[in-house]
Amino acid sequence: MKENIEGIERFVSPGKGRGLRVTKPFKVGELLFASLPYTYVLTASERGSNCEFCFTRKEGLAKCGKCKKALYCNVKCQKGDWAMHKLECGAMIAYGENWCPSESVRLVARIIAKQKAQKERSTSEKLLLIGELESHIDDVDNEKREMNEGDIASLHQFYSKNLDFPSKTALLTLFSQVNCNGFTVEDEELSKMGSAVYPDVALVNHSCCPNVIVTYKGNVAEVRAVQDMAPGEEVFTSYIDLLYPTADRNERLRDAYYFTCDCKECKTKSKDKLKLKVRKRNKPPGPEEISSMMRYARNTIKEFRSAKQIADKYQKTPGELMEMCQLSLDKMGEVFEDSNVYMLHMMYQAMGVCLYMGDWDEAIRYGEKVLKPYSILYPPYSMNVASMYLKLGRLYLGLERKLSGIDALKKAMAIMEVAHGKDHQYLIELRKEIEMQK
Known about the structure:
Elements: E1 8-13, E2 17-22, E3 31-35, E4 39-42, E5 62-63, E6 71-72, H1 75-95, H2 103-117, H3 142-159, H4 168-181, E7 182-186, E8 192-197, H5 199-202, E9 205-206, E10 212-217, E11 220-225, E12 236-237, H6 246-257, H7 264-268, H8 272-275, H9 287-303, H10 307-314, H11 318-333, H12 341-357, H13 360-377, H14 383-398, H15 402-419, H16 425-435
Parallel strand pairs: 9-12
Antiparallel strand pairs: 1-2, 3-11, 4-8, 5-6, 7-8, 10-11
């Protein structure tokens, strides 16, 4: 039986299909609703610092007695996770270092197991059943279909002892549903903790002018207002990074979610000129030079996903990574202003490389160049801006620049109180961090 969420209702959104709207007023920072995941997985690299079951970040976690890989807060968390962990525990022992299913495979395995065991609607399906998630199976191109088929092979390899699989057609649909509707669970610095599926949250449609933000308390998704909302207003979040210009955003939306956004910002492109600011020169760059540099920048962005991935892919040392960043910045800087989003992207990557190298002074230099444009180009209460204040604040404190550090952390806190709620554990820890500096 379908349940309700107070102040929220499902409706048919014109031109968008299903959606959510509010039935009562909400103020900035107010929680619209929270949702437990239908299923979720902790990212393998986070094992050791976060509980596998509740995602709590703490020291002294206890290992699973069998696989020695999964870690838990206590016996209660371990028992709570066993129904899902048992799908993987034996295979992790058997395959050792060769146990490497993708997070999509792990999520699909858990969905299959949960659907078999659970006959009633779960608490994460108050408004939408897991089977009702949009798959866009008819829109999937050959490349994605091949990836899904590879995931199906991996699913059979790692989970055949514990699961009975549905047909290949059903599995292709299920993988498409997970890929279109999965959420990346992130911490306060936007570092990935895991992946999850929240059917009710998946009903929220996209806008590049969002009025809510989705953040996480452990593995629970929380949807909070970042604009005052009146009864009848549709609920919109952003599916993508909003830093980039309209064409880039819509290319990403079409590729990942199979639609083009028609929000106010996409229609007016009001920030595009500022985002694509060109350097002032005696001889201004012409249209061809600008177009050529934008192509170069977009290709570079596709390559620079993260310092670690680049290092792994190209077998580069940190110093060589830094050189790649600087060469790209020098080349783009001949045409683009430092506040141009492609320059900002590369400076953010350079900051990451500096942190990877332990060069805190240089990391601060790049971070400071990024922060002011971020504050202008991102919407209010953006976690991209808050996470940059956090990173810089902690770097300042590490270099004994106490006043700068406290100031940056307080600015992060002002955003996070809206995005996470004032009682979130991250805010409690942050207040302690600031208090210790006084």
